[in-house]
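Mods, move this if it's the wrong board.
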Amino acid sequence: MIKNDVALAIEKKSEFNRAKSLLIVEAVLGSLKDALANKEKVEIRGFGSFKVVAKKTGFGRDIRRRKQIKIEKGHRIKFRPGQELKALLSKD
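Not the wrong board. Structure tokens:
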């Protein structure tokens, strides 16, 4: 699913046209990006939570050159699914 698909789903479930739906998607994603860039935790009840965690300096392997390489410290985003999403995913 891509951004336009999300906008189309909003359009079908509401009275908004495609342009307004796309603006809504852009606004929500922009807010999420801004919050994560400020290292804030983002929680969407029923869906899950996003959290920025620090990554330590470490070492990895360059498989082609068979050498050890240094991996610089930084940040990454960790996602934890909510209970409702977990329940949907566990149904078979």
